[in-house]
Amino acid sequence: MKVLQFITDSLGDASYLVVANGKAAAVDPQRDVRPLLAAAKEHNATIEFVFETHVHNDYLSGGRELAALGAQVVAPAKGELEFPHLPLEDGGEVAFGGATLRAVAAPGHTYEHTAYLGLDERGQSRAAFTGGALLMGSAGRSDLLGPAHTAELTRLQWETAQRIRGLLSPAASLFPTHGAGSFCSTTGSAMERSGSLATELSRNPALTSLTAEEFAAIQLATSAPIPGYYQYMAPLNRKGPRVYGEPPRPARLTPDEVASTTANVIDIRPRLEFANAHIPGSIDIEESNSLLAYTGWIIPFNAPIVLIAHDEAQARRVTVDLFRIGYEDIRGYLPFRDWQTAGRRVDSLEHVDAERARQILRSNEMPVLDTRFASEHLEFPIPGALKLPFDELTSWAGTAPARSLVVCASGQRATMAASVLKKAGRDVIALAEGGAEDLLAG
Fold first, then answer.
1. According to the model, what pLDDT value does residue 102 have?
2. pTM of the model
C-alpha cells in the first residue's frame, strides 16, 4: 500500500491517493482531480473508490468528478449524501488491491466525521486518514457548526483522539486533510503535512490533555474567523457539486468588455502594483494562499467575477482556486497591460510606509482602522485605532470614516479593505507594507 499526498496551498488542505496492486482510492479529493488522475496513470492504477472523511465545510469535493469516471464514493452514513454512494458505519470496511480501509467514527470536527484506518494485507493498522480529527500538532476546529454545538463537538474531538490512539501503534502514520493555513485547523498547527502517531503523542493537545476540559481550554482559547463561503459548502457537498470534467478556463476579455461589465472586477496582481495603478472601481485581492478566504468575505458567493491579472497563467490558477470553493461564474480575465495599452484611465491608491503611518497614529491626524481579526486585536492592540475586523468588512464599510488610514498585520488586508472603501467613495490611505508591530516600533 502506497500513499501519495497532494497539497492545495490555497486551502491549507491535503488529498490522498492510496495505491495497491493496480487499484487506487482517493481520500478527501479536491474538486480539481487532475493531479490524482495523473498520479494514478503514472502508477498504472485505476481509481475505484473515493473516501470522504466528512461533509466538507471549506471546499467542494471532487468525489463526484471521480464518480463520473467510474469510482464509487464512500462516505459516513450519518453524512446523508443525496447522490449515489456507499454509506459506511463505524467498523465498515472496503478492500481494493489487497489493501483495506476501515471506518472509525470520529466525531468532533463534525458530527458525522469518520477516520479511516489503512490495513495492510495481514490486517495490521499501518496508517490513519484522520481528516479533520487529529492534525499535525493540533485538532480540527470544533466551532464551525455554531455556539450551540461547540462544547459537545469539542468533547467529542478529545474522545475521538483517545480512540484513535488506542487503535494504532505509535509507529503508525497519520494523514490529516486539514493543516497549517486551513481555517478548519486550530491555531498551533504544525507545518508538517503528515507524521507518526508517536510525534503527536508528545505534542498534540488532543492527546496530551488528560481530560476533555483541559483540551477544551486549549482548543477554544483563540477564536478564528469563519470564511464567509463556508456556509455554502456543506449543503452543496451533501447535494453533490456539479460535474465539470475539468475546471473552467477563463476567456481573455477586451478593455471595452471590462469597462462595460457589471461583474465584480478583482485585481489579483501584487498589492503594490494595484496601489500604483489599477482599473477604477476594481478591488484588490492579490493572489496568495489566503485569496479564497478573503474573496469569501468580500465577494458574495458565486457572484460574477472578472479577473485583472498579469497574464493567462495567473488568471487560470486563480480561476481553478475559485472553482474549488464554488465561484464558478468567472466571466473572463484581462491582462492589466492591455488596459494600459488601450490608453484607458487608471487610478491609484494612496499608500504610506511605516514611519508615516506612525506619525498619523501618534498625531491623531485621521482615524486609523485596524482591520486585523478580533483575536489579533486582543493579542496585540494598537492604542487609539478603531477595531474593525476584516471578516466583518461588508458590515462596517458603509459607516467607515470619510478619511482614514487602514492597517493590518502585513499590509495585505489593509490594501484590500482600502480598495473596497475607495470604491465606496471613502478617502483612504493604506499601510500596504507593514503592520501593527511596525506601527508600535520606535
1. 97
2. 0.95
Question: What are the phi and psi torsion angles at 246 (to 5°)?
Answer: -140, 155
d(CA 94, CA 51): 10
Q: DSSP states of 336-404 as a string?
A: HHHHHHTT---B---EE-HHHHHHHHHHTSS-EEE-S-HHHHHHS--TT-EE--GGGHHHHGGGS-SEE
Whole-angstrom distance, CA of residue 400 vs CA of residue 395: 10
Please check whether residue 168 is in contact with residue 196, taking contact to mean a CB–CB distance below 8 angstroms.
Answer: no
Q: What angle do CA 21, 27, 31 make, to 5 degrees?
A: 120
pLDDT in tens, 17-76: 999 999 999 999 999 999 999 999 999 999 999 999 999 999 999 999 999 999 999 999
Which of 119-128, 207-216, 358-367 has the weakest average pLDDT? 119-128
CA-CA-CA-CA torsion for 406, 408, 410, 411, nearest 10 degrees?
A: -20
Q: Which stretch of DSSP H or E encloses residue 125?
A: strand 125-131
Q: Would you state the cell numbers that stand for residue 76, as one nine-digit string?
A: 459516513
Instruction: Enumerate residues 6+ apart whose C-beta is below 8 A from 85.
Output: 63, 67, 72, 73, 74, 75
User: How many helices (H) and strands (E) in the chain?
Assistant: 17, 21
- pLDDT tens string 379-414: 999 999 999 999 999 999 999 999 999 999 999 999
Contact 144, 56 (CB under 8 A): no
Question: What would the pLDDT profile of 191-214 be if each residue is shown by its tens digit?
Answer: 889 999 999 999 999 999 999 999
